[in-house]
Design a protein that fits this description.
By secondary structure, the chain is an alpha/beta fold. Helix content is about 35%, strand content about 15%. Strands 1-3-2-4-5 form a five-stranded mixed sheet.
Length: about 210
């Protein structure tokens, strides 16, 4: 199909005018771009309303601060922790923290301290004899002190160099000592000390007021 040059010239301006008329009447309502009717569109930035977000806020809980535990007071001779009672068939175990307080708490009884180590063979051999002596003698209290690292300071202070070593006390005063697992010598030392205590008691009873 052919058209005359005249008809083509007249149809193009009409088509262009129709398009321009449609563009001038077209407006977008989405807020992004608006046409003003000019040949070129002008862009306008239109702020869109932001959706409102609802944020749930949890009520703050009061913070509970844990109080730091009070530091344990240092153990002294007058403020020592009492040693737990020994089980049946065993001897009292003490340490350098309650050493002196334990001795002083035994009143008029003789107190025998056995300085031992866990790897000492003679210490293990004489231990049943010590338990037997404790059961037989009501005037005697026997306690054991392990010469390990935790009690090393006291051992150095008391000049304990051999295990086993035995210190014998009466009323807080050391009255005798010996080394080695010699049961007969230990019994002789105990008898001698008991006799001296009895003699001193009798002399005190007969002394004039």
């Amino acid at each position: 199909r052919t058209h005359s040059p005249l008809s083509l010239k007249t149809s193009r301006p009409q088509l262009s005018d129709s398009v321009m008329a449609m563009r001038s009447s077209l407006q977008t309502h989405r807020g992004a771009v608006q046409w003003t009717g000019s040949a070129a569109p002008v862009q306008h930035l239109v702020s869109r309303p932001q959706p409102t977000r609802t944020v749930a806020v949890c009520p703050s809980r009061p913070v509970q601060r844990r109080s730091s535990p009070a530091s344990a007071p240092e153990t002294t001779h007058s403020q020592a922790v009492p040693a737990p009672a020994p089980a049946a068939g065993t001897l009292q175990e003490i340490n350098q923290g309650d050493y002196y307080s334990f001795i002083e708490s035994q009143g008029d009884k003789l107190v025998l301290i056995d300085f031992y180590t866990e790897w000492c063979g003679p210490c293990k051999v004489i231990n049943p004899e010590l338990i037997k002596l404790q059961a037989e003698r009501s005037d005697l209290v026997i306690a054991k002190l392990n010469c390990n690292k935790s009690n090393k300071e006291l051992g150095v202070q008391l000049k304990v160099r051999v295990a086993p070593t035995f210190f014998l006390y009466h009323r807080g005063v050391k009255v005798a000592e010996m080394t080695g697992a010699k049961v007969e010598a230990l019994i002789a030392m105990l008898d001698k000390a008991a006799a001296a205590v009895a003699e001193a008691g009798a002399a005190g009873a007969t002394a004039p007021a």
